[in-house]
Write a structure and sequence with these properties.
The chain contains eleven helices and six strands. It is an alpha/beta fold. The protein has three domains: 172 residues, Alpha-Beta Complex (Lambda Exonuclease, Chain A); 73 residues, no CATH class; 29 residues, no CATH class. Strands 1, 2, 3, 4, 5 and 6 form a six-stranded mixed beta sheet that branches. Helix 9 links the parallel strand 4 and strand 5. The termini are far apart. The structure holds iron/sulfur cluster. Iron/sulfur cluster binds next to helix 4 and helix 11. Iron/sulfur cluster (SF4) binds next to helix 4 and helix 11.
Length: 312
């Protein structure tokens, strides 16, 4: 098959993802070292939960617990509900999934239409009912946004070769203490052979520092699940066509263990009502369900607005 000529943006991504000539895999012992470190850190929680009612830990839950604990608890109490913004990311992932196996001409509009139809017709997709309930203008707005993201992906990401074994929505699960604490993840895109995988998070918004923490959690989970650390982590912003990468190192995995352990302890203490949640103001205040009754959050949001006004 002839080599596809890459445009400069695609070449940039390709250069950032390919295996450097001097790359050396991490020593195999790292897997057991990291596992021991995690088990040691969580030893005091060994009888707090059961396999029937485990503590479930995900990237999102770790991220919210490290943000504002009160917000985390409020979100846990509320049933998840879709909105146009959250469903956009899901539809982009679905469209990329279809793209990987698309045999005919890769027209973003056609692929996105198929993605929307596929989700609506699959009752196991949790966004199915929400998308089916949208009005025609709302579907058109969603379609336009997803077509934009998919077009960016096609234009800026190198075509994924089958030899790279690309997997979309790669699921990973790992349980400790007889499955009483369960870590799980669904990674947007994973490419590469075992032991040299690159885990890629596709973002429809801007890249923030917390994305590296998210990916380190994925690296930790993939290391424990597959018994081989991935090679590299990458966050790709579809809007900005920007890639942020980090090599998986022992230090990054140890940092992931510490952050995960800290978050799991906080989640466990709050789940068992051992203490009150701590409030921490941040960007999450803007969409927090407690904002109306939270003095600190309301003040923070007012300050944000003031800064915005000063910028005008
Ligand atoms: S408004 Fe902000 S500080 Fe207050 S509970 Fe919500 S996220 Fe926390």
């Amino acid at each position: 098959m002839p080599e596809v000529l890459l445009n400069p943006l695609q070449q940039e991504v390709m250069n950032a993802l390919k295996i450097p000539e001097d790359w050396v895999p991490l020593p195999a012992k790292i897997v057991t070292d990291i596992e021991e470190q995690l088990l040691d850190e969580l030893a005091d929680l060994s009888d707090w939960f059961t396999a029937d009612q485990p503590l479930r830990v995900s990237k999102h839950l770790l991220s919210t617990i490290h943000g504002c604990e009160a917000h985390h608890v409020a979100q846990q109490a509320e049933p998840f509900s879709w909105n146009i913004n959250t469903v956009r990311g899901t539809m982009v992932h679905k469209a990329v999934e279809l793209l990987l196996n698309w045999k005919s001409e890769q027209l973003p509009g056609s692929i996105v239409d198929s993605a929307i139809t596929s989700v609506i017709n699959n009752p196991r997709e949790s966004a199915s009912g929400f998308i089916a309930s949208l009005s025609e203008p709302e579907v058109a707005e969603l379609r336009g946004a997803v077509v934009g993201s998919l077009t960016n992906f096609l234009e800026c990401f190198p075509p994924l070769k089958p030899q790279w074994r690309p997997v979309v929505e790669h699921g990973a699960r790992y349980g400790v203490h007889h499955d009483s604490i369960v870590f799980s993840a669904r990674m947007d895109l994973v490419i590469g052979l075992p032991g040299r995988k690159v885990i890629i998070d596709l973002k429809t918004g801007r890249i923030t520092p917390t994305h590296r923490d998210d990916l380190r959690f994925y690296a930790l989970l993939e290391t424990l699940r597959s018994r081989q650390p991935p090679r590299r982590l990458a966050t790709y912003s579809l809007d900005a066509a920007r890639l942020d990468t980090e090599d998986v190192s022992e230090g990054a995995l140890q940092a992931a263990v510490r952050r995960t352990s800290h978050g799991v302890h906080a989640m466990a203490e709050l789940a068992k009502n051992k203490r009150s949640p701590i409030k921490r103001t941040g960007m999450q205040c803007k969409w927090c369900p407690l904002l109306d009754t939270c003095q600190e959050g309301a003040q923070f949001v007012r300050q944000l607005s003031g800064l915005d006004n000063d910028d005008l």
